[in-house]
Amino acid sequence: MSFPYKHVLLIGATSGIGAGMADRLARSGVKVTAVGRRKDRLDAFVARHGSDIASAAPFDIRELGNIEEFAAEITKTHPDIDSLFLNAGIQGHYDVSAPETIDLASFNNEMTVNYTSLVALTFAFLPHLKSKAEAKTGPVSIIFTGTHLSIIPAAVLPAYSASKAALNVFTLCLREQLGAAGSAVRVIEIYPPPVQTEIHDYLTPEIGRKMGMPLEAFTEEAYAGLAEGSDQIIIGGPEPRETYLEIVQKRRGMMEGLAAMMRRMTALGGGVERGRGDQEGK
Q: pTM value?
């Protein structure tokens, strides 16, 4: 099957998995608008693939207050964007048993980059994507790069594991609520194994960039999953793999069952006001 989207806005496109996926998509003829902080790498991406296929938008996603303006500018310049690919992520090693060793600003920055900024970007671009889906001109999606550590956390990577676990929950809720609302916007999550990229440089580049699956092999498998139309693309994973896959699928099934039950309660008048929860008993 061919890749279903015509123009991908790829966040976090200047290094690692994001850079690899941007190149893979552009080589296949998909238009890619690459977003990242490093303008020199964005310029090199456009030069590699040509301006008919590639474009770039320098932006720091940590600037949460500027995200809505950024989304408005991007969708005005590129109204044909039909897929938002949220890939940005950073990873650090923390010993939370020794708080005197923790750089809290760095810890919180990891949570912001890996979770809060991606939620803000989703909310900012969702009206455009819902409008595209309603126009029925082709498939529309939001793609998240997650991790197996969102399901099975790594004790030495508490900020990364926690931020990605939060993103996984957000992805499940977004998919469920869009589906219940009748929206055709697809929500896709990729679960990568460790991949040989800059994300592990805290171990030193000599060690970190040799850790895991080769980037090209990963991007080929991820591209194939996206082309096949899967909404969960699970590449590798903890062993025993059968047990891990069962956990992922049963957890999703139970979540969807709970969502259906809560919708029935709401229909019967037993729901809570939208946007508010019970502030007591927590």
A: 0.92
